[in-house]
Amino acid sequence: MKKVDTMNVLFCGSGGQGVLKASEILGWAAVFEGYHVKKSEVHGMAQRGGSVESHLRFGKEVFSPLIPEGEADFLISFDSSENNRLKHFLSPKGTDLIKYLDKAKKSIHDKRYINTFLIGVLSGFLPIKENNWLEAIKLVFSNKNLEENTKIFFQGRGEIL
Amino acid sequence: MNNKTILRKKLAFLSGDEAVAQGAFEEGLKVAASYPGTPASEILEYLSRFNEIDAQWSVNEKVAFEVALSASIAGLRSLYASKHVGLNVAMDALMTSAYIGVNAGFVIVSCDDPGIHSSQNEQDNRLLAKIAQIPLIEPSSPAEAKEFVKTAFKISEQFDTPVMVRLTTRIAHTKENITLEARKEIPNKAFEVNIPKYVMVPRNAYQRHIELLKRITKLQKYAETTPLNSVELNNKKIGFITSSVSYLYVKEMFPDASFLKLGLSFPFPENKAKEFARKIKELYVIEELEPYLEEQIRMLGIKCKTKHPSYRIGELKPEFIPEIVKGKPKIEEPYSARKPVMCPGCPHRMVFAVLKKLKAVATGDIGCYTLGALPPLASLHTCLCMGAAVSFLEGFKKGVDKNVVAVIGDSTFVHAGIPALINLSYNKTKGLVIILDNSTTAMTGGQPHPATGLTIKGQTTKKLILEDVCRACGVDNVDVIDPYKIKELEELIKKRINEDALSVVIARRPCQLIAINKNFAPSFDKEKCKNCYLCLSINCPAITKLDDGSIEINKDYCCGCNLCVEVCAPKALTKNEKS
């Protein structure tokens, strides 16, 4: 008998791609929305080009900080080989957002904004209000390049909504 | 204070490390000391933001422990934090601190690393709390860590003992919603001269050992009643005794089961465990790493099932729990994650390229440069613990003799390399030590240390001059060189490595992550390229071999360090003065 009311989002990529920033934005957006949130990741190797994965779970009450294998609702990848490596985490009903990575790479000229685009895409699927996303973006980027980040967030969001 | 916490006032999203720090701050912490180490570094980084707290990076964990403990004895609430293996360095102080006890509250935070994400072993420091005979507190989550650390200070003062709060990577580096509360101002305690308590000569220590046993007996009673140890009675057919993050994994997979969740697991609440066991039909003990709870439960004669011994290795995961309950052994899966690599332009790479060329045997140490062991560089041949590169040179000079060198980072050298260097000099060992001086503690996120001339709060302080230290240790030749001058570096290492003298070469250039050095990428003449792949031998992430076998330089990653130009025999790669 497993709990089913927790939303599981797995972020993956390699060091320096903005994986942890992206999951940080979702983390804060979910906190602002009033959910209980847990985000788990491993630091230390992130800037050395190693694999980076961030498990983000939110709901009424979250227990495990790690998403159990086969239970991710969304897989959001910054790198196609990391996507292959972690695909088995997706639940049978889960959504792999890998196709939006290619879209992001084609439509975003400055690759520093790929994470903002992908967060925009993800936002189209999750029960979190737009203003909470924007608040989270403001906070996580410390108001840096806010105009550009907001624009690209909506560009990504526009892919879904 | 953290911008994020100012913006959101009472609402925060903190990691376990930050939550422990926040809890200690709220509980009136005055002094905190540590040496950086994953997954514990963020505790002191968070504490360093508060004006009310005297926080420091110490030269090593032993010193950090003594700084914090002495502040407690002098009357100020204090905290020591480190990774699991860091506590080994402070072990001497830890063991006798249990005899001495405290004055104001003193908390030891140990961040263990099951799964060895960023460490040299996965020792279970719960066993150290038991050996030292100090109370052991095990939170399961960041929110709990914040509350439990407060209780830890209270226990410390009530029972006159250091208290260990143990996190693991999955608590330290998990973020969770945290409510921030106001700081309590706790008045300092007066220091009173008490030689029998604070001076551990044999007679006094014997008496203190008696006191220690009395204290443990009292704590044993406390463990039976404290809310840190909680019972959840649900389905009585299946019940779990568990602690730490393992509790959350079990709760995830068996939400309707009954639980005895241990937040204070040393001293062990024997009666509580017996009583819980009586109510449960099928009892399991689930814990990460060593069978610490299991042994205490079995000693009580309680019948229980537990994990297959293969699960003692590595961290637990939620999906393992049903398998453990079925009694199955762990299936080891091949390691598939991408290996870390030195950054493009990393000054360590030059040194390893030279050592590879000279076919040197290198005793290594702990830091980013340990990555020099990975193929294709494969030019670092030992790594044991902090400082061991320098002492290992002695054994290797006695055995291997020629073409041996020790490599150690600047922060690691200050931490534990200096006594070993004195030992080389004192015991007449000749040889070469290379200090890879990137002017930071890089692998743990770029913390300052004495040779940077900066404190944890970013203030300037007296700067330790490494070349002066080496000379004072009795080193015959001390050379400082920029490793980017690769030809000169090679000549220098060649000259020193087999010389009949004790030499230190300080290869000094700041870490690419603190002072990004970006020059033009080299030009690549495809016609001249012989596909010899010498350029791949330096393991630079900016150079890739494409599917058709040709070479490509990624100009986004490339920093223009031109090491590849040096190794390219057919001269297909040439230095580029312009873009």
What does this 3D model show about the protein?
The complex is a heterodimer of chains A (161) and B (579). By secondary structure, chain A is α/β, with parallel strands linked by helices. Chain A has a single domain, classed as Pyruvate-ferredoxin Oxidoreductase, domain 3, CATH 3.40.920.10. Chain A contains 6 helices and 5 strands, in the order βαβββαβαααα. A 5-stranded mixed sheet of chain A has the order 2-3-1-4-5, with helices on both faces. The radius of gyration of chain A is 15 Å and the shape is globular. The termini of chain A are far apart. The relative contact order of chain A is 0.18. Chain B is of the alpha/beta class and 579 residues long. Chain B has 4 domains: 223 residues, 3-Layer(aba) Sandwich (Rossmann fold); 97 residues, Rossmann fold (3-Layer(aba) Sandwich); 162 residues, Rossmann fold (3-Layer(aba) Sandwich); 52 residues, Alpha-Beta Plaits (2-Layer Sandwich), CATH 3.30.70.20. In chain B, helix 18 links the parallel strand 16 and strand 17. Chain B is globular, with a radius of gyration of 26 Å. In chain B, helix 2 packs across helix 8 and helix 16 packs across helix 20. Classes of the chains: A alpha/beta (161), B alpha/beta (579). At the A-B interface, helix 1, strand 2 and helix 2 of A face helix 1, helix 9, strand 8 and helix 12 of B. Strand 2 of chain A pairs antiparallel with strand 8 of chain B.
